[in-house]
Amino acid sequence: MAAPAIDHAMSTASQTQTITIAKGINQGLRAAMEADPKVIVMGEDVGKLGGVFRVTDGLQKDFGEQRVLDTPLAESGIIGTAVGLAIRGYRPVCEIQFDGFIFPGFDQIVSQVAKLHYRTQGRIKMPIVIRVPFGGGIGAVEHHSESPESLFAHTAGLKVVSCSNPVDAYWMIQQAIQCDDPVLFFEPKGRYHEKAQLDPTQTPYPLFRSRVVRTGSKATLVAYGPKVRTCLDAAAAAEEDGLDLEVIDLRTLSPLDLAPVFDSVRRTGRLVVVSEAASESSIASEVAARVQQECFYSLEAPVLRVTGFDSPYPPSKLEEEFLPDLDRVLHAVDRSLAW
Amino acid sequence: MSSPEQWTHPDGAPPATAATPTAEQVIAGLRATTEGGADLVQLLTPEGERVHHPDFDIDITPEELRGLYRDMVLVRRVDREANALQRQGQLGIWVPLLGQEAAQIGAGRAMQPNDMAFPSYREHGVAWCRDVHPTQLLGIFRGTDHGTWDPMEKRFHPYVIVIGNQVLNAAGYAMGQRFDGKVGDADGEATICFFGDGATSQGDVHEGFVWAAVYDAPLVFFCQNNQWAISEPTERQTRLPLYQRAKGYGFPGIRVDGNDVLATLAVTRWALQECRTGNGPVLIEAFTYRMDAHTTSDDPSRYRLSDELELWKLKDPIERVRVHLVKQQWADQEFFDQIQADSDAIAAELREYCVNMPDPGPERIFSNVYAEPSPVLDAQRDEFLDYVSGFAGGEH
Ligand SMILES: Cc1ncc(C[n+]2csc(CCOP(=O)(O)OP(=O)(O)O)c2C)c(N)n1
Ligand SMILES: [Mg+2]
């Protein structure tokens, strides 16, 4: 396995550049559109405006209005027409403006996007990417900070991934576009502006693989998307207290790639799973269930989850309390160690 | 395929979207349409001239017009003050109503006490008419709560952010009014539902049209066509002027000058009355303009030309009423001075209230998720409050 995914600082290649997560996705989209004329981008405000987060900035200007579509305001329409375009040989990349607005498109995603390949014995492929800026911490009004990924991971026929850093953002979006299955692509919007060094000549890490991003021996932290950074920060803080934590970035939520997690837990004996989503029937629950099944004799403590609560996302003045932070992660680590 | 012109103008009348900007500019999304076309109902011109309309006219007393003027000036002042509060970090975001005062005050003042309103998120002027104090709007935008007024007491539903959702909810509410026997005479009830031009693309809105039509619901669909859905001009949503869509669903559609408070009042009053007496639903397209950014997070210079704003400033909803009041000698300097003083007072009150709003306690995360107890959530709450109290008093 290659070096940790987060700190790419030291590459010497001349093409190395500093990018943010937003820029990484933007450049990844651009590369995919250059490589394949069938790749099109569609969504609300993605063209002239370049998206409300500017993730598609400049693409319509360079690729034209037939490849970057400012669609009518309807998510069912965006996804439903992407299905037809995919049947016609296109590879649509749909943008859902915010996590909480995916639900008008939910029917099309679950009933058509997820099932057409199965229904047609593989005759129709659905190479659709649905980009979803997700998660909280941006002080927004209702419906702008949600974490609905488990709903899609729960749906057979969909693949679900989430990037946590700019380099992954750049590569994963391109790999998702190349995938012949539909991919829900969850982007940590609260971290869009975090920076890292990208060397585009490097070999990318495979899309559907989890990754150890920090090695340690006392306990394992598992997270994805926005909470990977939180876990790395927690591990750094723990290190000052002489506590050595391993951090794994899941990257792929469906299919889950838990082999690195099992390996890790067999060494550390302790696992804390961290996510902003509510805990019941979640990705975190699934990880916990599988780990207790595979690593039962290695576990020194029950698997603990640090998640959002099983309430709607609260008013933003309460999001600091709602979102798992460094303190809550370390509190769970303490509980695990004290078991 | 037949052209949209043929569809909309079988009699050869000029296209209703005919406009100062060229068609190419409009389609390229550089400019919005500025002219409402031949079917636009107008009672007060941008120059403050009173004109008459064969179907929709209104007897307005000087006192009523002064009241409408006062409403508009005050909600504009509230809007500007809230916008400034956002800029100063006191609100997370603000959704400006600037330019849409006449549409909202005209519609809001057409309502009777028992009528019900379902807003989207920009209806601060309608809230005003429903006696929701402007300070009560702040929690949503400051992030202290998702909404604070009592929807049933005010007959003003909570703000709805997911585009289009409220239209079906309003249709259901109006069906209930009918099922309860509240429709049929002039004392009946009606519902009015607000949404934007962008929203007209959503399935929920189309389904709302179908439901209301099939159940003869007493529902006024009030579409504020402010020409933009964030960065997308109306042409990205429709070929047809929006009011003409109503015909396909089987009810009347009227385009009113949404910058003309008199016309909006007259048309909405008529529409609500139609609904109350059993002739609903009705679609009103209030032709207006979003004079500010979509929200305080938006930068319209990225997608529209500023000369468009200059054109619309000439159609300002407030200025034309002021001119008319002066011309008719229906208002004197003392009146205008008083309104200035009232504006200053409400702006000060809003500011004072805003900066002193307490943050909610962590228990709010868990309250009111369900009407009945939930053992899972209650346990989470207890555990979390316990955890939080561990930090109480000290830095952590
Ligand atoms: C279902 C859904 N999709 C996307 C959004 C994001 N969004 C918020 S406002 C808006 C444009 C709405 O335009 P319009 O209906 O014309 O209303 P206006 O804001 O102009 O009043 C969009 C796309 C949303 N709130 N809900
Ligand atoms: Mg609009």
From TrEMBL, chain A:
Organism phylogeny: Bacteria, Bacillati, Actinomycetota, Actinomycetes, Pseudonocardiales
Listed InterPro entries: THDP-binding, Transketo_C/PFOR_II, Transketolase-like_Pyr-bd, Transketolase_C
GO terms assigned for molecular function: magnesium ion binding; oxidoreductase activity
The entry's keywords: Oxidoreductase, Thiamine pyrophosphate
Cofactor(s) needed for function: thiamine diphosphate
Organism: Solihabitans fulvus
SMART domains registered for this protein in UniProt: Transket_pyr
Segments forming domain Transketolase-like pyrimidine-binding: 19-194
Pfam families: Transket_pyr, Transketolase_C
Protein name according to UniProt: Alpha-ketoacid dehydrogenase subunit beta
Oxidoreductase in keyword set: yes
UniProtKB/TrEMBL annotation, chain B:
Keywords: Oxidoreductase, Pyruvate, Thiamine pyrophosphate
Gene Ontology molecular functions: magnesium ion binding; oxidoreductase activity, acting on the aldehyde or oxo group of donors, disulfide as acceptor
Entries under InterPro entries matching the protein: Alpha-ketoacid_DH_E1_comp, DH_E1, PdhA/BkdA, THDP-binding
Pfam name, any one: E1_dh
Domain Dehydrogenase E1 component: 70-349
Gene Ontology BP term (one): branched-chain amino acid catabolic process
Swiss-Prot/TrEMBL cofactor(s): thiamine diphosphate
UniProt cross-references to PANTHER family, sorted A to Z: 2-OXOISOVALERATE DEHYDROGENASE SUBUNIT ALPHA, MITOCHONDRIAL
Protein name: Pyruvate dehydrogenase (Acetyl-transferring) E1 component subunit alpha
